[in-house]
Amino acid sequence: MIVIPFILIILLSILTIYLTSKNNCKRDCKNCMGCNLYKEDRK
Amino acid sequence: MNLVNIFITALLTENVVLTKFLGICPFIGTSKSRKSAISMGLSVMLVVTLSSIITYFLYHYLLVPTNTEYLKTVLFVLVIASFVQLLEILLKRYFKSIHKMLGIYLPLITTNCAVLGIVLLNITNDFSFIEMLVYSVSSSLGFTFVIYLFSSMREKIENSDVPAPFRGYPIALITAAIMALLFSRYV
C-alpha cells in the first residue's frame, strides 16, 4: 500500500515532463495540438 | 466555520496576496494592463479550484490511509504542474491571444506560491469538502479581484504626472503597500 503514493509521484513526474516537452515546441502550426511535429509530418 | 464567513475572510480580510503575501510575482508582473490581469486571475482560479479538488481526494483517500502525509508537498506540486501544462495546451489551441498575452507568466503559475499555498492551507485548516471548495474559489477570486484592482490603478498612474524617481515600479510598489495596509485593516 505504501508504494502507491511513490508510484503516483513517478507517473505524475513523467506526465509533467511529457506535457512540458509538448508545450516547448517552437513550430507555430495553425490549430497547434502540441504534437511536436510539422503539419506535413502529421499527414 | 460558516461558509459565508470563509468566503468573506478569504476574499478580503485574509486576502492571499495582500495579507499572506503569496503570488507576488504575477501580481507585479501581469498587472500592467487590465486584460492580462483578468486573464491571469481567471487562469489561477481554474488551476486552484481543480487542483484543490484533486489534492483534497489524494490527501484524504491516499496519503492519510498509507501514512505518507509527508509526501503532500511533492505530490501537490506535481498535480499543479501537470494542470498548468494542460491549461497551456488548451489556451494555445483555443485562445491564442490570451496565450500570447500571458506569455511566460502562464507556465509560471506552476511556481506561483498562491496556488500551492491555497492547496496546502486547505489541508492544514482541516476543511470539509464544501468548505475547501468555498475557500479555494474565494481565495482565487480574491487574487483576481486584487490583481484587477491593482492593474486599474497602474493604468491610471501611467497617465498621471508622477515625479521622475517614482515612475514605474517604485510607485507601483507604494500603491501595493497602501493596498496591503487597507486589506490588513491597519488603516
Describe the structure.
The complex is a heterodimer of chains A (43) and B (187). Chain A has one domain (3-42). Chain A has helices spanning 3-23, 39-42. The model of chain A has no long low-confidence stretch (mean pLDDT 74). Chain A contains 2 helices and no strands. The relative contact order of chain A is 0.12. Chain A has 43 residues and is an all-alpha fold. Helices cover 58% and strands 0% of the residues of chain A. With 187 residues, chain B is mostly helical. Chain B has one domain. Chain B contains 8 helices and no strands. In chain B, helix 1 (3-13) packs parallel to helix 7, helix 3 (34-63) packs antiparallel against helix 7 and helix 4 (72-94) packs across helix 5. Chain B is globular. Chain B starts with a helix and ends with a helix. The model of chain B has no long low-confidence stretch (mean pLDDT 88). The chains are: A mainly alpha (43), B mainly alpha (187). At the A-B interface, helix 1 of A face helix 3 and helix 4 of B.
